[in-house]
Structure formats: structure tokens, C-alpha cells
Design a protein that fits this description.
By secondary structure, the protein is an alpha/beta fold. It contains twelve helices and ten strands. Strands 1-2-3-4-7-8-9-10 form an eight-stranded parallel β-barrel, surrounded by eight helices. Strands 5-6 form a two-stranded antiparallel ribbon. Helix 1 packs across helix 2 and helix 9 runs parallel beside helix 10. The chain is globular. Keywords: Metal-binding, Transferase, Zinc. It holds the Pfam family BKACE. InterPro entries: Aldolase_TIM (IPR013785), BKACE (IPR008567).
């Protein structure tokens, strides 16, 4: 992104889009019973509450009545339909893992099969976005956790902790290309999860080769454990590479969430919060609900001078439902330099 003079002035920045992640597949309801919804009615109401607090994008997973993360796409259909009816303006983003929670005690935490995740393109009603991971990676979720983050939770149990510590994200090139193709055919936007500069560069190549022809909407996922560590240097590396036409949301975990979000807000980026990422307030004196975390970001955004995006503004900025007809149009719309012309060497230059 080109950071021109005045880029920190709020009048030169977009309204803020807050993504809420309230469904938390890595936690059990007993970890935070006041805020982890279990019944379908509770899960639908949680979406409404997040929207009313200021979130415009809902990162969606689903629970079964026993409290475990659901791996049934019929449950996703049910929740999406319920949210569409109760909160029609909310942008629905389905988590591409479906649920990585262990199915039984002592089982591994793992992402579902390639074929199962491909079926997200067949959800009815369809979501606005599905998150798409790029490049297989370690996903050692608790690496950034302090022992105090785990105290009194299910993840303090050694077998549960180890299950998440050893988790892998499978996202090899063939799977990613087919997944993007199916989502695009269904009119669903790919929301790219970029864990580091390498996964971002792979997304750029997918666009330059015509695999994905749509708006570049992405999260920088700074949770450590095989992904970027949440610090200023890694953030700057991503921001420097991302083209001006992209929509970039920053994401972290544990007490890193607020700090990374504040840096992102100051720079004109967008943010994500919720108990999927962090259970605690900044002093760890009590747990913080997803709604409380959204309200906190909304207060800080007001002090920064950045208004919260309206539903219409968020949908326009994210270009929901927009796809392009050619590689050239895709690159230009997203702010990338054009592809090289044949054997032309040297610096890429845009046509005047």
C-alpha cells in the first residue's frame, strides 16, 4: 500500500469494518458459558447482538446441542438462514475449516477433508464469503498463549492443548485452485487468509494466472505457531506488499488482539475480534464477551476519528458479489501492476 502524506488522518481513511468471530470452535461452552451460544436460537441472536454492537462481518462456525463444533453442513445452512432472516444486513463469512475441534476426547484437532471443505460452495442459502487458506502451514494455536490465558479452560488439559499444538492447515495448490473455482462459480467471494508474505505472494500469483478474478479481500493472520508473529515488522511487511485496491483486515490472538487492532485502525486497515481469538480483557481480570470486544473497538475507533462502516458501506468496500472478466481487469481493479508483456524485462510499468 502506498502510504502518502496524511494517510493517518481519519478523513483520508475508509470507515472501519469490524469482523466478529463469536462462535469459537477451539473453546467449549464450559470455558465461557455466559458468551458461547449453543442452541440455534442463541447462535442466531449472537449474530444480531454483534451487528448491533458495530460488527458488519460475521465469521461463522456452528455448534451442535452438545456444545461441540458442528461438522454438518446442514447446520451451517440452518444458521445462515436464521441470520439472514434476523439480521439481513450482516455480511456472512463462513470459516473455511468448518470446525477443526477434536471430535472426541484425546482426538487430534484437524481440518476436514478437501472434498468436505469444497462443499462449502454448495451451502444454501449461500454466504457472502468463505475464508480460503493459502499454502499448507503449521497452526500451533496455543503458541502465543500465556498460561493465564488457559487457566480454568478446556485447553489447560494436556491432551487438548497438545491437540491444538500439533494442528496442521492443509491448503496445497491443487486444493486451493479447485476451491476458488467452485466458490466463484457459486458467486461466493474468497476471503483469503494470509499467514505471512509467502501466502500473500501465492494469492497474487493465483490472480496473475487467472485462477481468481475478483476483489482482493484478505486477513493478515498474525497468531504465531507457523504463521506470522503479531508485531509491527511483520505487519509492515504485509502492508508494504498489499496493493491499494485490496481490503486488508488484521487478525491476532490472545492479548495481542487489541494491540494489533489498534495499530490497524490507526493505519486505516480493518479489524477482527471475538472469543474465537481471545477470551480475556487486557488485565485478565475477567473474560470479555465478543460484544464487549466489539464495543471496545467501536469506542477506540471513535477516538481515532474513524466512523464504523454502515452495512451498505461495508458491502461496497468489500465488493461483495463482484467478479471480473479478465486477468487484466482483476489486476487493475485491485491495484496491482499489470502482467509482463511477453518477454519484456525489467520494471513493470502501468500504461499511461
Amino acid at each position: 500500500m502506498n502510504l502518502l502524506d496524511g494517510h493517518l488522518f481519519p478523513e483520508n481513511q475508509q470507515p472501519l469494518i469490524i469482523t466478529a468471530a463469536p462462535y469459537a470452535p477451539s473453546w467449549l461452552p464450559s470455558d465461557f458459558p455466559e458468551d458461547i451460544p449453543v442452541t440455534m436460537e442463541e447462535q442466531i441472536q449472537k449474530a444480531v447482538d454483534c451487528y448491533n454492537a458495530g460488527a458488519r462481518v460475521l465469521h461463522l462456525h456452528v455448534r451442535e446441542l452438545d456444545g461441540k463444533g458442528s461438522k454438518r453442513l446442514s447446520k451451517f445452512n440452518e444458521l445462515i438462514a436464521g441470520v439472514r432472516k434476523a439480521c439481513p444486513e450482516m455480511i456472512i463469512q463462513v470459516g473455511g475449516s468448518i470446525s477443526f475441534a477434536p471430535e472426541t476426547e484425546g482426538a487430534a484437532a484437524k481440518w476436514l477433508s478437501d472434498d468436505t471443505r469444497h462443499m462449502l460452495a454448495e451451502l444454501t442459502p449461500k454466504p457472502d464469503q468463505v475464508t480460503v487458506t493459502i499454502n499448507t502451514s503449521q497452526m500451533n494455536v496455543p503458541e502465543q498463549f500465556d498460561a493465564r490465558d488457559l487457566a480454568g479452560t478446556s485447553m489447560a488439559e494436556p491432551e487438548v492443548f497438545n491437540a491444538y499444538k500439533e494442528m496442521i492447515v492443509p491448503a496445497q495448490p491443487g486444493w486451493a485452485e479447485e476451491h476458488i473455482r467452485r466458490l466463484t462459480a457459486a458467486g461466493i467471494q474468497s476471503a483469503f487468509q494470509c499467514y505471512n508474505i509467502n501466502s500473500f505472494e501465492s494469492v497474487e500469483r493465483l490472480m496473475r494466472r487467472g485462477i481468481y478474478k475478483g476483489p482482493l479481500v484478505m486477513n493478515w493472520v498474525a497468531i504465531g505457531g507457523g504463521m506470522d508473529a503479531p508485531n509491527l515488522y511483520n505487519m509492515a511487511n504485509i502492508v508494504r506488499a498489499v496493493p491499494d485496491g485490496a481490503v486488508l483486515t488484521v487478525e491476532a490472538s490472545t492479548l495481542n488482539v487489541l494491540g494489533i487492532n489498534m495499530m490497524g485502525m490507526a493505519m486505516g486497515l480493518h479489524v477482527r475480534c471475538g472469543i474465537e481469538d481471545n477470551l480475556w480483557n487486557q488485565t485478565r481480570t475477567k473474560k470479555a464477551s465478543t460484544v464487549e470486544q466489539i464495543e471496545q473497538l467501536a469506542r477506540i475507533a471513535k477516538d481515532f476519528g474513524r466512523p464504523i462502516a454502515t452495512a451498505a458501506q461495508a458491502r461496497e468496500m468489500l465488493r461483495i458479489g463482484v467478479f471480473y472478466d479478465s486477468v487484466e481487469e482483476t489486476l487493475a481493479a485491485n491495484g496491482f501492476a499489470p502482467n509482463r508483456n511477453g518477454g519484456q524485462q525489467g520494471y513493470l510499468r502501468k500504461v499511461a
